[in-house]
């Protein structure tokens, strides 16, 4: 699903819960209910019966339920077989499992690798 250090879900929106507004979370959020608004988190997981209506910004998004809005991630978007995404997706990696629905545009980003600059110091020279 996602890497080991992000396996823990810090925030859960339960199946009988409706939240409207904007939310920003450090860590992973799972939506099994309904969320309407803008959401920012490290990882967003929309459960099979979950519904996200609004824009999502995260390292990764896993859609098992319905997402109505744009998704922007630094790593990946996965649409499971029960998932539906209606909106534009900007990501490095897009995975759609057979049965998953995606209606929108996708823009693939290149992976950002930081260049490491190595500078050799002469004896007595100080680093900047």
Q: What are the salient characteristics of this protein?
A:
10-stranded parallel beta sheet, globular, 0% helix, mainly beta, 128 residues, 6-stranded parallel beta sheet
Distance between the termini: 42 Å
- What share of the residues does DSSP label as strand, in percent? over 45%
Oligomerization category of the chains in this entry: single chain
Provide mean pLDDT, rounded. 89
> In total, how many beta strands?
16
Q: Encode the helix/strand succession as letters.
A: EEEEEEEEEEEEEEEE
Q: Sheet with the most strands?
A: 10 strands, parallel
Compute the CA-based radius of gyration: 18 Å
> Number of helix segments?
0
Spans of at least 5 consecutive residues with low confidence: none
Helix share bin:
under 10%
| Structural class estimated from helices and strands | mainly beta
What count of domains describes the coordinates? 1
Task: Give the CA-based shape.
Answer: globular
Write the layout of secondary structure elements.
Layout: E1 9-13, E2 18-20, E3 23-24, E4 28-31, E5 34-36, E6 39-40, E7 43-46, E8 51-53, E9 56-63, E10 66-68, E11 71-79, E12 84-86, E13 89-91, E14 93-96, E15 101-103, E16 106-108
Parallel strand pairs: 1-4, 2-5, 3-6, 4-7, 5-8, 6-9, 7-9, 8-10, 9-11, 10-12, 11-13, 11-14, 12-15, 13-16
């Amino acid at each position: 699903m996602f890497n080991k250090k992000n396996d823990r879900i810090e925030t859960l929106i339960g199946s009988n819960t409706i939240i409207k507004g904007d939310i920003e979370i450090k860590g992973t959020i799972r939506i099994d209910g309904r969320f309407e608004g803008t959401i920012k988190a490290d990882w967003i997981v929309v459960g099979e019966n979950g519904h996200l209506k609004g824009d999502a910004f995260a390292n990764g998004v896993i859609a098992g339920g319905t997402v109505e809005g744009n998704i922007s991630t630094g790593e990946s978007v996965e649409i499971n077989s029960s998932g539906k995404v209606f909106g534009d997706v900007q990501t490095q990696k897009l995975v759609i499992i057979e049965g998953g629905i995606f209606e929108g545009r996708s823009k693939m980003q290149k992976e950002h690798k930081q260049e490491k600059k190595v500078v050799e110091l002469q004896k007595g020279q100080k680093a900047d």
